[in-house]
Amino acid sequence: MGSPGKQVSRVVIVGGGTAGWMAASALSHGLKGAGVAIELIESEAIGTVGVGESTLPHIRYFNQSLGIDEAGFLKETKATIKLGIEFRNWARKGDSYIHPFGDYGHPGDPVDFHHSWLRLGGAAALGPIDDYSLPIRMARRERFARPSSDMDSLLSTYSYAYQFDAALYARFLRGFSEARGVTRTEGRVVDVALDGESGFVTAVTLENGKRIEGDLFVDCSGFRGLIIEQALKAGYEDWSHWLPCDRAIALPSASTAELPPYTRATAQDAGWCWRIPLQHRVGNGHVYASAFMDDARAEDLLMQALENTALAQPNRLRFLAGKRRQQWSRNCVAIGLASGFLEPLESTSIHLIQVALGYLLDFFPTGAWDPADAAEFNRSMSMEYERVRDFLILHYHATERRDTPFWGYCRTMDIPDSLTWKMELFRERGVPTSYEYGVFLPPSWVAVYIGQRILPRRFDPLAGAIPEAAARARFARLKAEIDALADTLPHHGEAIGMTRPSVTATA
Predict the structure, then answer these.
(1) Local structure of 41: helix, strand or coil
(2) In this structure, what DSSP letter does residue 101 have?
(3) Residue range 132-161: average pLDDT?
(4) pLDDT at residue number 120
(5) Whole-model pTM?
(6) pLDDT digits over 36-78, tens only?
(7) Rounded to an integer, what distance in angstroms lies between the CA atom of residue 336 and that of residue 341?
């Protein structure tokens, strides 16, 4: 087993949780009819991180590709809609902006909207750029409607994601996978056997002595990297000098009357707190840098941020920002936390699982093992991680805060050359980076740049093609149209068919 010349007939997934069951679902669906047996090993005794409750719009396409009914999914996972992420206190204390899953302005604008906004004086003359984005206005007013396919409609200018209970999503996908032939084995892996000649993984042994052989192993064992690191020594790229947060505390709380269709990230003295509203509770957490704040103070800040009663004991996590040097090594592919970790500031963890599974299916070994498959997988995933990394660093580095040592460090730290170039391009000409690959589109970069007070020195000359008086009148009409349309849309809870639980306010 595990020979480089052997066709894959058995896939063994080590670890459950979101990553494991997403892998089982994608592989059982994508390899249907290929004669590949899939077995997933997980231990009830090993808890999952379970804080990845906020997603990007791409998760919709993952679910759709599996044929999952959205209404059933929303009900089973207690999910809510997510139109973007609100950032509070990032550039300065008191600031607030939303990174929308959509664009600004009206479809078909001749130039990127922010150029026209800048030409007429920006926020000082026209108000915040957020006022000219339908998904942001919807989010602020707790409204939601599914996007329109009419590309001339304002309702076509956005997408949406989900906020869900990660444990319920894993359970939901377990049922999907088992119905398609995936075998689940309960147990803890205590040994990994390697072939003496090729170094390929041949089998894993469970605590009860059971030996499970396979041809391809998918490591979803979390931060431990049970196979990819402990057995295969793939190595790790440490990015903590750019992303210094290395601790998190997660804590659910009771629902409140507020049901915003967005996630909130509020900057703190040495990190930030998240708030994720679900149908049955609110997810909360504090991500922070232990070099700048002790654990007790971090927990105090989280408890102060709660808007209602805590429903569990705090779940404390330690991590190191970065990625495996090789995420596909020999016949093992690492997925999820086993492949690396970038903090959940922009909800990219589940997206990176999804991307990795797409590449794995693209390069799935169908005969003799070709090292080029693993090499291309590793190149592609490195690019995905690095582009997410730069976007996350931007949030920290683009700050004017001087009130704590943490923000002083972030404001003045050296940053990757790739991000320096992107920031200078936007400062000089207002051009956001556009890639063929990479998760964040230009409007996302514009949202963070402008939201964190990075404004271009120049705007596109084409923005001056419309006479100024006509352009100002057009802006006024657009804002009125967005406000009026947002007010006609259903309330968020109504739009997803949600029955609200009783809300008990804290004393």
Answers:
(1) strand
(2) S
(3) 97
(4) 97
(5) 0.95
(6) 999 999 998 766 555 558 999 999 999 999 999 999 999 999 9
(7) 8
Return the amino acid letter for 121: G
298 — pLDDT class (breaks 50, 70, 90): very high
As a residue count, the chain comes to 507
Residue among 482, 449, 475 nearest 109 (CA): 475
* Percent of the chain's residues with pLDDT above 90: 91
Contact 222, 340 (CB under 8 A): no
| φ/ψ of residue 184, rounded to 5 | -100, 130
Give me 400's structure tokens: 């004017």
Q: Using DSSP bridges, classify how beta strands 236-238 and 322-324 pair: parallel, antiparallel or unpaired.
A: antiparallel
Helices 442-451 and 417-429, interaxial angle, to 10°?
80
Write out the two tokens for 327.
């995420």
What is d(CA 310, CA 332) in angstroms, rounded to the nearest whole number?
40
Which position has the token pair 């089973």? 76
Read off the DSSP letter of residue 490.
P
Q: How confident is the model at residue 436 (pLDDT cuts 50, 70, 90)?
A: low
Which domains, ranges and CATH numbers included, belong to the chain? 10-53+165-239+321-387 (3.50.50.60), 84-162+413-492 (no CATH), 247-318 (no CATH)
Q: 369-414: per-residue pLDDT in tens?
A: 889 999 999 999 999 999 999 999 999 999 999 999 999 999 999 9
Residue with tokens 């304002």: 154
CB 356 within 8 A of CB 58: no
Active-site amino acid positions? 82
pLDDT tens for 18-45 read: 999 999 999 999 999 999 999 999 998 7
Burial string for 240-269 (b: 16+ CB within 10 Å, else e) reads: eebbbbbbbbbbbbbbbeebbbbbbbbbbb
* Residue 156: alpha-carbon gap to chain centroid: 22
Closest CA to 83 of 469, 503, 492: 492
- The total of other beta-carbon atoms located within 10 Å of residue 501's CB is 12
Mean pLDDT of 145-160: 96
CB 42 within 8 A of CB 377: no
- Distance from C-alpha of 369 to C-alpha of 198, rounded to nearest angstrom: 11
Three-class secondary structure of residue 231 per DSSP: coil
Distance (Å, rounded) from C-alpha 111 to C-alpha 213?
A: 57
**Residue 505 Cα distances to 66, 165, 253, 403, 410, angstroms:** 39, 22, 11, 33, 37
